[in-house]
């Protein structure tokens, strides 16, 4: 019995220290992975600086963005970036949000989705931008919300998890399109602008 009490306190101390380590990790619980236009992404947000995926508005429309840039001058002088923006009316778990036409209210809750790509041959060259949106006459794009959680630590912020699958088309050339199959988990960061 005299050994049992110190052993019990030791186990409680170790279990508490493991929880503190989990809370102070360099990564948080948000992520974005999958493929856009044949390019693979597998990123997790850094708790402090890098917010690749984040919710920028919760009400009246839930808006989130995924932003990513690639520039590795030791490998190539090319620089590229992508911004995927999604607007959903009241995300609910287990619901599919179908979307065919940009910013139409008739799209079952998926209010808007667009993807902008920017390429530069090198840092001194002009930007080559393309904007991709849904096309009513072509393949639809579907966002599926798999889970909606609320945080305790961040004042009840909504955490939305789901997938986006389908095709977006160049706003000026319907022959140019990008296929998308991605998984995401996003939340609003109170101290972010």
Q: In a nutshell, what does this entry contain?
A:
The protein is mainly beta and 193 residues long.
How would you describe this protein?
With 193 residues, the chain is mainly beta. Strands 1, 2, 3, 4, 5, 6, 7, 8, 9, 10 and 11 form an eleven-stranded antiparallel sheet that branches. Strand 3 (53-57) and strand 4 (62-71) form a beta hairpin. It is globular. The chain has one helix at 4-23, and strands spanning 27-36, 39-46, 53-57, 62-71, 79-88, 95-99, 110-120, 128-133, 141-150, 158-170, 173-187. The protein has one helix and eleven strands. It starts with a helix and ends in a 6-residue tail after the last strand. Residues 11-26 and 102-107 have low confidence and may be disordered.
Any chance you could write out the topology, listing elements then pairs?
Elements: H1 4-23, E1 27-36, E2 39-46, E3 53-57, E4 62-71, E5 79-88, E6 95-99, E7 110-120, E8 128-133, E9 141-150, E10 158-170, E11 173-187
Antiparallel strand pairs: 1-2, 1-11, 3-4, 4-5, 5-7, 6-9, 7-8, 8-10, 9-10, 10-11
Please tally the β strands and state the result. 11
Whole-Å distance between the termini?
Answer: 57 Å
User: What is the H/E string?
Assistant: HEEEEEEEEEEE
Anisotropy-based shape: globular
Backbone structural class: mainly beta
Main sheet summary: 11 strands, antiparallel
Q: DSSP strand (E) fraction?
A: over 45%
Q: Write down the overall mean pLDDT.
A: 76
Uncertain spans, ≥5 residues at pLDDT below 50?
11-26, 102-107
Instruction: Output the radius of gyration.
Output: 21 Å
Helix content: 10-25%
């Amino acid at each position: 019995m005299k050994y049992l009490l110190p052993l019990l306190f030791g186990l409680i101390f170790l279990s508490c220290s493991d929880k503190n380590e989990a809370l102070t990790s360099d990564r948080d619980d948000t992520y974005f992975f999958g493929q856009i236009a044949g390019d693979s992404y597998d990123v997790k947000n850094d708790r402090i600086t890098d917010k690749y995926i984040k919710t920028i508005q919760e009400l009246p429309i839930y808006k989130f963005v995924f932003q990513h840039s690639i520039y590795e001058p030791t490998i190539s002088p090319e620089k590229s970036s992508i911004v995927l923006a999604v607007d959903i009316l009241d995300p609910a778990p287990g619901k599919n949000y179908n979307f065919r036409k940009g910013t139409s209210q008739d799209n079952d809750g998926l209010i808007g989705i667009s993807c902008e790509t920017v390429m530069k041959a090198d840092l001194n060259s002009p930007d080559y931008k393309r904007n991709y949106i849904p096309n009513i006459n072509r393949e639809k794009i579907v966002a599926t919300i798999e889970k909606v959680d609320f945080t305790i630590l961040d004042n009840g912020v909504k955490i939305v998890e789901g997938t986006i699958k389908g095709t977006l088309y160049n706003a000026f050339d319907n022959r140019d399109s990008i296929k998308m199959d991605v998984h995401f988990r996003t939340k609003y960061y109170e101290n972010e602008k």
